[in-house]
Amino acid sequence: MNLMPFMDWNDQLSVSVEALDADHKQLIEIVNELYDRILDNSTRDLLDGTFERLAKYTQIHFAHEEEFFELTHYPDTDSHRRKHEEMTSWVLETQRKLKSGELPAPPMQVALYLKQWLLHHIIGTDNKYKAHLNESGIY
Ligand SMILES: [Fe+2]
Ligand SMILES: [Fe+2]
User: In this structure, which ligand is nearest to the CA of 24?
Assistant: First the structure.
């Protein structure tokens, strides 16, 4: 049992839009679940199940952000969408590898990569839409 979560949401991660903060919290929870299952040496089925949730929820969340971009004519839409597409490809490819057992990196490295990507994306990329969405009346 570990007392410290692998990832933790804090105010610095807020993008000032309630629904999108809620999505990010949910994604962090799924990454924590993945980490816990890796630590517990869970069965492949359990790992697959968590990854399935991750794949679904990243799609839901990316679509959610992109809807707001379209609605508000966010100028940085194309480059932001490209980052989402790259991550989607990585998630789907990793999920495929996980299922077929050909994962080149230990699962923990997969969890660490996800954590880094998510933090980096929220702080470095999502943060940029904050002012624009708020100015467009989206909180
Ligand atoms: Fe996001
Ligand atoms: Fe994003």
Answer: 1
Distance 48 CA to ligand 2 centre (A): 24
**Assigned domain for 19 exists:** no
Going from the Cα of 132 to the center of ligand 2, the distance in angstroms, rounded, reads 14
The domain containing residue 97 runs over which residues? 24-135
Q: What is the pLDDT of residues 39-57, one digit of tens each?
A: 998 888 888 999 999 999 9
Report the candidate in 118, 122, 126 with the shortest Cα–Cα distance to residue 6.
118
For residue 29, report the phi and psi dihedrals to the nearest 5 degrees: -65, -40
Ligand 2 centroid to residue 103 C-alpha, Å: 26
CATH code: domain of residue 79: 1.20.120.50
pLDDT tens, position by position, 86-107: 999 999 999 999 888 887 778 8
